[in-house]
Amino acid sequence: MTPNLGHTRRDIIVIGASAGGVETLIELLAGLPGDLPAAVGIVLHRSPFFESKLPQVLGRRSDLRVIEAADGQRFDASCAYVAPRDVHTVLEGDRIVLNRGPKEHRTRPAIDPLFRTAARHYGPRVVGVLLSGRGADGVSGLIAIKAAGGMSIAQDPAEAKHPTMPSTAIVKDDVDAVLPVAEIAEALVALAYGPSSETGVSPRSPTAR
Question: What percent of the chain has pLDDT over 70?
Fold first, then answer.
């Protein structure tokens, strides 16, 4: 079955990952074009104690601009914003806001705050993607995205290095599609451009299960 692309461009993409997520994100971002007409927000669980060059690592094979999110920054298309360590990254209107609110799922940054605020401010324009990881962070956020009219995608657990997060999303959220990473990238491109009748682009529809 192929998900219905509908008539809404899904130009707000939010992605969550934890254990096993670095390699997965590198592969996913490598499949997105540099002129993607969507803004991408990424939360990867990371240590609050060690500085790292995570955006450079994640973007080493990507044509997208991959940068660390900054407080008050515009959330613009053709750019991927990576949540900094020890702060939650949320969306307020067209801006990124960083805060040191309570940890969720015993971590900060957590995935759910980004997903929830994307749903609140952008509704049906949002696609939420949950990748490899342990625990259930991101699941309630995906539910909020779907409740607001957005779409949810989970990485195929058979492919994920740590399948608990996507598996939990599949059970709890009834996600719109379960895909390997290469097909997630194709789906995000199709959804960002929208139906061919509106954009002249022929979308490549993902296969759901």
Answer: 90
